[in-house]
Amino acid sequence: MNENIIEVKNPVLSIQNLSIAYDKGGKYAVKDVSVDVKRDSITAIMGPSGCGKSTLLRAINRMHELYPNIVTEGKILLNDEDVYGMSTIKLRRKIGMVFQRPNPFPTMSIFDNVIAGYKLNGIRLKKSEREEIVETSLRDVALWDEVRESLFKKGTFLSGGQQQRLCIARALAFKPDVILLDEPTSALDPVATARVEDLLVELKKNYTIVLVTHNMSQAARISDNAMFMYLGELVEYDKTKTMFTNPKDSRTEGYLTGEFG
Amino acid sequence: MKAIAIRDNSNSRNTKNKIFLGIVIFFSLLTILPIILIVGELVVKGIGQINLSFFTEAAPDTLQAMVAKANGETIPGGIANGITGSILIVVLAAVMAIPFGIITGIYLYETPGKRYSNIIRDIADILQGVPSIVLGLIVYLWVVKYITHSYSALAGSVSLAIMMLPLIIRSTEETLKMIPGTLKEAAVALGVPYHKIILRVLIPSSFSGLLTGILISISRILGETAPLMLTTLGNPRINWDITHPTSAVPLLIWQFYNDPNMVELIWSSSLFLMGFVLTLNIISKRISAKHSIH
Fold first, then answer.
1. A164: contact with B, CB 8 A cutoff
2. Does this model's pTM top 0.90?
């Protein structure tokens, strides 16, 4: 066990000896990563471009399997259940994902976007259930008051920041255990970014959040724990405060002080 | 001193810009000139024949036309047999070509770079280059001789469907390619199975593009004459039976051209065909502008 990686009790996610290559026999994008994610908290994954942080994130809900020749070794346990043994439909109901660019479905109304996961999977809901899910999800992302009058307008009429919050609401509609966010604010302006950050801090009371970010100050502002990845390796994993004030590995220190990245 | 030098420079640049702009405008006017001349010519020569009976009555025979011309009247009858025939043949062709074309287009989009899909794409391109008269000949052999045992609307629509197919395949593939990949990711991240992503996310999102492709391919085949000569032959009466010889607007134009008594009808029929194709084109442009996904 790497001494720069802290242990977490009763983790939601437990990643064990995970290695991923985009080609059989090719270079590993993620190298033998073992790490536990703390429940009801924000965990940030940092690192320079190409360090494997997005690949690691996508491996958690198996989105990385979209690439044709991907090779995955190791295990990921979600509440002690192996995600590679689950159906992707079940897995992705438990682990929601939000992307870099807001991507509401352009043909659907705001209302339908929130329950898109149910609609597209053919899960039938009563009218009252639908309305309840939409309202709670939109309230959770603090969008309800802004859109309650225009629920049946297209989601693409919203501003970028509102669209991103709508996408978070879409992920929340399944009441997932974990929400994965892949640089969720990199396409947003500073005001919208601040709102999404406040929202994430609010959401961690009920959800476990894993966040990939390029933005070190964002990780410092909102995350409880932070991982630093470099060339596919998990170099360091610690409480965010400890990592930013007293990094143990020289590579982490180099990245945080702006020597590379 | 410096400031003056800059102003001089910008003056000469402005002049150059203006000259260049003038040249660009001149040549773009030159390219739209033919369409204006064509439409103008057709309107001037054809508008006189267009009245209600032009749309409701079948084409006259040569004797009726000759008598009317001798008396200095407008030629009686219309091109209703051609219009109904064209509708029948084109709708039938679309029904055959659209499902195949869209499914194949989806396949090409989903499997880029695969050997099999490259072969299909190449074949579609080759199909697009097959001379339409050759298609007519082949369909004559397949459908007219062995299936309907006579010239028929069905045979005509098979040949037109083969012409539509590559257009729809390629427009489907290109439309799907323009949909941001993030949309597909969003659906995948919700655990949506593959076939539902295609049916309920990709196709609805690209609907306007697909429709545009279909309308353009229809406007392309509306004017086809050569394959119809060998497959549907023509019919002096309105016919809705797909196993019988059927007329079509371009076939009528060809027949009017060969009959010295009916020359006037060439222009009105051409005006009608041109107007129809233009309208389809304009509608498809409107649709794609209105529903485009950024």
1. no
2. no
